Amino acid sequence: EIKSKLADLHAEETRENSNIKNLSSEKESLALERQELSDKIQELEVDKESKNQELVKLREKEQNLIETSGTSVSKLKEFDDKL
After folding, report:
1. Strand residue runs (E) in the chain
2. What are the DSSP calls for 40-77, one per residue?
3. Would you call 1 helix, strand, or coil by DSSP?
4. How many CA atoms lie less than 13 Å away from 32 in the CB half-sphere?
């Protein structure tokens, strides 16, 4: 009876230790994945900021071209009128 209970307790302890090792391994794996994702997010944020700055510059250039285009059209019209 005692030997049987002792064997049961030992088997349970072995299962629990195995579960602890598995959970510990899973925890380490998740921590590594979390760090990788965090690094990727930071990398993408930097890239996003760079792209946003480029977009602002391109929009400013576009606006400048629109303004210049309007001026050029009116100047061409004036030139044509003089002819």
Report:
1. none
2. HHHHHHHHHHHHHHHHHHHHHHHHHHHHHHHHHHHHHH
3. coil
4. 6
Q: Six-digit token pair at 72?
A: 């050029």
pLDDT in tens, the chain (83 residues): 999 999 999 999 999 999 999 999 999 999 999 999 999 999 999 999 999 999 999 999 999 888 887 777 677 788 788 87
Q: What's the distance, Cα to Cα, between the start and end of the chain in Å?
A: 119
Q: Is 19 helix (H, G, I), strand (E, B) or coil?
A: helix
Question: Is the model's pTM score more than 0.70?
Answer: no
Q: Please state the separation of Cα 55 from the chain's center in Å.
A: 19
> And the tokens for 31?
């921590």
